[in-house]
């Protein structure tokens, strides 16, 4: 096994930061001048389209969703809303404690690291400025690719960009978006991060996976032990 492909939210990010998602979206609503609960609902219901890029970038997305809510923000208001929205998204993607050092360790061990994230425009736009970017060899974003998990094309793209056959890739995720089903079908070796130390985190997953991988770990740092004990880990 030469590569490890990670899910992003709830896997590399701090699962407890998911609890901030609603309040950050509502902070954006306040700047746009849209009723917060209505805006939250509109953002939630547009999620499937937003993560495959159908709304465009963050600025176009916020304008479109505000209009759906009956408000047409002017440019100045929209500028402030984009800034507020990006600041909120940064809070939601706070790294899981210790995860950056784990990524450094895995790279030092010689693994190539990839990412497959079902994400909207915010993560794609901010990625190069994040602490994750320099540690991930091949990030694959649903927003950019126009497909969401468990679409086989995302897994094939990640493996191809790493230059590694899918059969030599671990896929590590907290089990949203039927991602392990997709990883197994792609020929990768799935690992579930249970987030057992984060009560309620499982309830925040979108479209949870019914397939339960053989390999299960509570924390991402347990991955180091799992890889070390894997017999064909060459
Ligand atoms: Mg996840």
UniProtKB/TrEMBL annotation:
<dbReference type="InterPro" id="IPR051540">
    <property type="entry name" value="S-2-haloacid_dehalogenase"/>
</dbReference>
<dbReference type="Pfam" id="PF00702">
    <property type="entry name" value="Hydrolase"/>
</dbReference>
<protein>
    <submittedName>
        <fullName>Putative hydrolase of the HAD superfamily</fullName>
    </submittedName>
</protein>
<dbReference type="InterPro" id="IPR036412">
    <property type="entry name" value="HAD-like_sf"/>
</dbReference>
<dbReference type="GO" id="GO:0016787">
    <property type="term" value="F:hydrolase activity"/>
</dbReference>
<dbReference type="InterPro" id="IPR023214">
    <property type="entry name" value="HAD_sf"/>
</dbReference>
<keyword id="KW-0378">Hydrolase</keyword>
<dbReference type="InterPro" id="IPR006439">
    <property type="entry name" value="HAD-SF_hydro_IA"/>
</dbReference>
């Amino acid at each position: 096994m030469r590569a490890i492909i990670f899910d992003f939210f709830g896997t590399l990010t701090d699962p407890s930061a998911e609890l901030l998602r609603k309040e950050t979206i509502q902070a954006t609503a306040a700047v746009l001048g849209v009723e917060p609960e209505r805006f939250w609902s509109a953002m939630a219901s547009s999620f499937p389209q937003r993560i495959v890029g159908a709304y465009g970038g963050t600025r176009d997305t916020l304008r479109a969703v505000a209009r759906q809510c009956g408000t047409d923000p002017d440019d100045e208001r929209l500028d402030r809303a984009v800034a507020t929205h990006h600041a909120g998204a940064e809070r939601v993607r706070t790294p899981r404690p210790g995860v950056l050092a784990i990524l450094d360790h895995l790279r030092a061990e010689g693994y190539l690291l990839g990412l497959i994230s079902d994400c909207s425009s915010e993560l794609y736009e901010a990625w190069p400025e994040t602490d994750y970017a320099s540690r991930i060899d091949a990030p694959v974003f649903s927003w950019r690719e126009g497909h969401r998990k468990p679409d086989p094309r995302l897994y094939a793209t990640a493996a191809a960009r790493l230059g590694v056959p899918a059969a030599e890739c671990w896929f590590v995720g907290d089990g949203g978006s039927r991602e392990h089903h997709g990883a197994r079908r792609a020929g990768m070796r799935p690992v579930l991060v249970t987030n057992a130390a984060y009560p309620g985190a499982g309830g925040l997953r979108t479209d949870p996976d019914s397939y339960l991988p053989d390999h299960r770990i509570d924390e991402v740092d347990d991955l180091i032990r799992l890889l070390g004990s894997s017999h064909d880990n060459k």
